[in-house]
Write a structure and sequence with these properties.
This protein is an alpha+beta fold and about 800 residues long. Among the domains are: about 230 residues, no CATH class; about 80 residues, no CATH class; about 120 residues, no CATH class. The chain is about 55% helix and about 10% strand. The strands form six sheets. A five-stranded antiparallel sheet has the order 13-14-20-16-17, with no helix packed on it. A four-stranded mixed sheet has the order 6-5-7-8. Helix 28 links the parallel strand 5 and strand 6. The longest helix is centred in the middle third of the chain and has 34 residues. InterPro entries: Uncharacterised_YfhO. Pfam families: YfhO. It comes from Pontibacter aquaedesilientis. This is YfhO family protein.
Length: about 800
């Protein structure tokens, strides 16, 4: 039987919700949408620098290069900027976001996906709108946008859609649910921030364990297995759509710093057999006490650079030091390090909202047991993981033994789980309170207990804030620089007290609204609208501290990439095939890559061997290593002498006089400490069967005649057979060498470079980057994309034609 659709009942409320989300997005991001402004997002600017060569090649040829020489001597483009034509999910994302510009589109899609999740749980339209605001306006969603973590933001945004599909499949119609799940997971994977996907999988894993336990108790395990199998097929389809991206990244990750090191003495005992170093992975660990920022945003002083006003203690302290008022005002407005927590630095706290925390605690009392066990356990796991090295026993175990966990850093990001589970349980609690106020025993008492716990914590913080030290890790340096440290600590205390009182007020107001509703003094409409307004005001106000209209300006990208005098001097060299080292910040800056082929760059997953050479030789100023990388210029950062020419850069390729053989990677990298790069090639014979030998190079020449980032052509004149070393990074999974058009083997030399035996005579040598993983992966993506569109079309048709299954949602 065909289900009849009532426009006013079934369609109009959702259209209104979407209009509300568009309006909220438009107001918050008005400078972007209506004034043509943008924000200097750090990671986006770095991305534009690193991706410049890739994008130029795409624009010129219409093809993908898959390799770029713009960063770290050369690396695959997979994790920088690679398109997979077989993957249609990007078009679906554009459709769902109405092609809104970055940042605005990120928040809109977060609102929309959260709304879909809550609607699938049978919350009414207005509760779902309130819940969507609670999900989307969590402070972390805005702080990561300020930092430029746009793909992380979008990966998080689609997590609620994945959960919506699972809920629908397990509780209602399995086929429609599986289609929603496939769409959500496809889009979640599309943005390729696997750490966020990993956290989502941990959350789902806990849910599955709880589901299985209760299914066994209730005798419905067979039904659960059937529905789970359908979801499994949907997951395979989602992976298939993204297979091109996942396959190439998986291949590359083995060779990146996320993979296993080949050096036996690379690091201390904190290094795992594969994956990242512990110290590196746990460098951003959320403090145990810092967790209270979920309830009180500035409990630990906000950000590492917080603007203050003329009412601050710091401003008055500067005046007492004899500083002119104008200068004192400029200093405090530019920001002071008010953050005093254990992280090296932070752009702001993870704040889910005082009201949402209160509703979460209420949910622990009134939401059904399986759901609250799942969400409470996931929240606890999130907090424990975020503590990192402040909870070593648990987190070191996870890092060393839990599959894949040691591939990720900045463990404070694990609070992404909490920023989803806390609002979800909170909104389910509000839903039950509104729906079942008559049937839940002692609901008014439970309401007051939940409010008393959260408001009580806020009140205690307000009363006893003065007992904290407010001493930060940067204080000694600040004091040595002449900053009024006592005044800064007083401002930290003031911020804690102010936000504690602020949270107390929001909780008290929300408890009052709901209490009067329970007593029949207010309608459900007024109660929901009141809670929604309070949630919005609470979260909006905190987010504006970290991302506001003043952060946007015109011509951000153009201004950032104006060539400096140093760039202009180097660009006078019309030979484009050399490298540049940006000395002030070589390995955390990709701006240089916008103009030049850089020895350094900015990337969180550079090649492992290249990182080894950075650590062992480049940072130790090993000139021979810089010469073999064809480093012709150094940008010094000195205004008097902005550019220095590196003596003896070896060019694109050269014949060597001898092969020095070693037996291990340790010996290979150590041999670079004292060698002449123009004469000697160091080869690890455990990997490449090349004998130690000498060559006569007199009269032999090699010249780079054609350059594309993925194709290099050389003209060779060899008076005798010899070995050529190329100033190009060795990467076996894709680079193929050709001698006079015929494929030949090439080897690795000097730990990171390519080398190739060459017979006597005149020859043409070509290197082409032709990774099979891209071709295979893209084909699988194309087939899977077509199947996904068919599945989505079938689900839409099925949902229109069929009556929905009886509701099985129980919260």
């Amino acid at each position: 039987m065909t289900a009849s659709i009532d426009f006013k009942r079934d369609v109009l409320p959702h259209l209104i919700a979407i209009l509300i989300f568009l309006a909220l997005t438009a107001v918050y991001f008005a400078p972007v949408l209506f004034e043509g402004k943008a924000m200097a997002q750090h990671d986006i600017l770095q991305f534009k620098g690193g991706a410049k060569e890739i994008q130029d090649y795409r624009e010129a040829t219409g093809e993908e290069t898959l390799w770029t020489n713009s960063m770290f001597g050369g690396m695959p483009s997979y994790l920088i900027n690679t398109r997979y034509p077989g993957d249609f999910s990007g078009y679906i994302h554009t459709l769902l976001t109405f092609n809104l510009p970055a940042m605005a589109g990120n928040i809109f899609i977060t609102l929309l996906c959260a709304y879909i999740l809550l609607v699938t749980l049978r919350l009414n339209t207005w509760l779902s709108v309130v819940g969507a605001i609670a999900f989307a306006f969590t402070s972390y969603n805005f702080i990561i946008l300020e930092a430029g973590h746009n793909t992380k933001s979008l990966t998080i945004a689609y997590i609620p859609l994945v959960l919506a599909g699972m809920f629908y499949a397990l509780r209602r119609n399995v086929w429609i649910g599986a289609a929603i799940f496939a769409l959500g997971l496809t889009l979640n994977l599309h943005f390729n921030h696997l750490q966020m996907t990993y956290y989502m999988l941990l959350m789902v894993l806990i849910w599955v364990v709880v589901e299985v336990i209760y299914a066994l108790k209730q005798g419905r395990i067979a039904d659960l297995v059937k529905r789970g199998l359908v979801l499994g097929i949907a997951a395979i389809l989602a992976v298939g759509v993204n297979f091109g991206r996942l396959y190439t990244v998986a291949e590359y990750s083995q060779h990146s710093i996320r993979g296993k090191s080949e050096l036996s003495v690379a690091n201390s005992g904190d290094k795992t057999s594969s994956g990242l170093d512990r110290d590196y992975a746990f460098s951003w660990s959320y403090g145990v006490g810092e967790t209270i920022t979920l309830l009180i945003p500035d409990f630990y002083g906000g950000s590492s650079n917080t603007p203050l006003d003329k009412d601050s203690d710091s401003y008055n302290a500067f005046l007492k030091m004899g500083m002119p008022p104008v200068q004192a005002e400029q200093i405090v407005e530019q920001g002071l390090p008010t953050y005093w927590g254990p992280q090296p630095m932070t752009s702001g706290p993870v704040y889910v909202g005082a009201i949402i925390c209160f509703l979460f605690v209420l949910g622990l009392f009134i939401v059904n047991k399986p759901t609250r066990i799942w969400l409470a356990a996931a929240t606890l796991l999130s907090i424990l993981l975020a503590w990192g090295n402040h909870f070593e026993a648990f987190n070191y175990f996870m890092f060393d033994y839990f599959p894949g966990y040691n591939k990720f850093r900045a463990v404070s990001s694990a609070l992404v789980i909490a920023q989803i589970t806390i609002p979800l349980l909170g909104m389910l609690a509000l839903y039950r309170l509104i729906r079942d106020r008559v049937t839940i025993k002692d609901l008014d008492k439970k309401l007051l207990i939940a409010g008393g716990i959260t408001a009580g914590i806020s009140l205690l913080v307000w009363l006893f804030a003065g007992s904290a030290s407010f001493a930060g890790t940067v204080d000694q340096q600040l004091q040595q620089s002449g900053f009024p440290i006592d005044a800064i600590r007083a401002d930290r205390e003031s911020m804690m007290r102010s936000d504690a009182l602020r949270s107390f007020v929001f909780i008290a107001l929300s408890v009052g609204l709901l209490y009067f509703y329970l007593k029949g003094k207010l309608s459900s409409t007024v109660a929901i609208a009141g809670i929604g307004l309070l949630v919005l005001v609470d979260l909006w106000g905190v987010n504006k501290r970290y991302l506001n209209d003043g952060d946007f300006e015109k011509r951000v990208v153009e201004n950032h990439f104006q060539p400096t005098p140093a760039d202009q001097m180097i660009l006078q060299d019309k030979d484009p095939n050399y490298r540049v080292l940006y000395l002030p910040n070589p390995f955390n800056d990709a701006r240089t890559s916008y103009f030049h082929k850089s020895v350094g760059g900015y990337h969180g997953a550079k090649l492992r061997r290249y990182q080894d050479v950075i650590d062992r030789h480049i940072v130790q100023n090993n000139l021979e290593v810089l010469r073999m990388l064809n480093t012709r210029y150094v940008i010094t950062g000195d205004q008097q002498q902005p550019v220095q020419r590196v003596p003896g850069a070896l060019g694109n390729a050269w014949f060597v006089e001898e092969v020095k053989t070693v037996n291990t990677p340790d010996e290979e990298i150590e041999a670079l400490t004292d060698f002449e790069a123009n004469k000697t090639a160091v080869v690890d014979v455990s990997k490449f069967k090349v004998p130690a030998q000498n060559f006569n190079t007199e009269g032999s020449t090699i010249e780079l005649t054609e350059y594309q980032p993925n194709e290099l052509k050389y003209a060779v004149k060899a008076t005798q057979s010899g070995l050529v070393v190329f100033s190009e990074v060795y990467y076996a999974d894709g680079w193929q060498a050709y001698l006079n058009g015929q494929p030949v083997e090439h080897i690795r030399a000097n730990y990171i470079l390519r080398a190739m035996p060459v017979p006597a005579g005149k020859h043409t040598i070509e290197f082409r980057f032709e990774p099979k993983s891209y071709t295979i992966g893209n084909t699988v993506s194309l087939v899977s994309s077509i199947l996904l569109l068919l599945v989505l079309g079938g689900a839409i048709f099925y949902s229109i034609r069929k009556k929905p299954e009886p509701e099985k949602v129980n919260v």
